[in-house]
Design goal:
203 residues, single chain, 2 domains, DNA-binding, transcription regulation, 9 helices, Arc Repressor Mutant, subunit A
Length: 203
């Protein structure tokens, strides 16, 4: 990581550089989906992206740095939070977004590959943690707004409420294999909103 807090390749470029980055990140996605982290070979990524190997090695340097940049790009491209003025509805939108992402054939496979890689690679794990921290930061304000409206008590930990929405969904996705659909999403959101209103997440 550089002094500016960016992993290699993380500064959003423009023009030809942006096209190269897009092509390389797409190739990295394909490799992760098809082969897992072991398939993220920089020379192979360069071939898939039709980019010079020197460019890829100079810009990213390691497969870990490339996957970290991919996760940063995913965070930047993620859908912004919904603000309806009702906590349960906001959390429902969050839960449905998670379910729609995880059940998408391409995105679901990509997340499984990245999560699997993160279990044995420290840099990938750190990048994954940053990705989810960014998503929690994006959605936490809907809980703070609910507190201000009186829907949840003062001192409610907004980040914990957001985590409570998605945790059961990831459990089904990664562990139990139980059905994952919008009905499940809505139930998870309702449970988190009810618990928040009852004070379960007060710090």
């Amino acid at each position: 990581m550089t002094d500016a807090g960016h992993v290699p390749g993380s500064v959003r470029p423009g023009g030809r550089t942006a096209r190269i980055r897009t092509a390389v990140l797409r190739a990295a996605e394909d490799a992760l989906i098809e082969c897992g982290f072991a398939g993220v070979d920089l020379a192979e990524i360069a071939r898939r992206a039709e980019v010079g190997k020197t460019t890829v090695y100079r810009r990213w340097g390691t497969p870990q740095a490339l996957v970290a940049d991919l996760l940063q790009d995913m965070a930047e491209q993620s859908v912004r939070r919904t603000e309806t003025g009702v906590l349960a509805d906001d959390l429902r939108a969050n839960a449905r977004l998670v379910v729609d992402t995880l059940t998408d054939p391409r995105q679901g496979a990509l997340f499984k590959a990245v999560i699997a890689a993160a279990t044995h690679d420290r840099r990938t794990a750190e990048a994954l943690h940053r990705f989810y921290a960014a998503r929690i930061t994006e959605w936490a304000p809907v809980v703070d707004q609910a507190v201000a409206r009186g829907e949840a008590p003062a001192g409610t930990d907004a980040a914990e409420v957001v985590r409570a929405v998605s945790a059961p969904l990831y459990y089904r996705f990664l562990v139990s294999g139980d059905p994952l659909d919008r009905t499940v999403a809505d139930r998870s959101a309702h449970a988190a909103a009810s618990a928040a209103a009852a004070g379960a997440y007060v710090r």
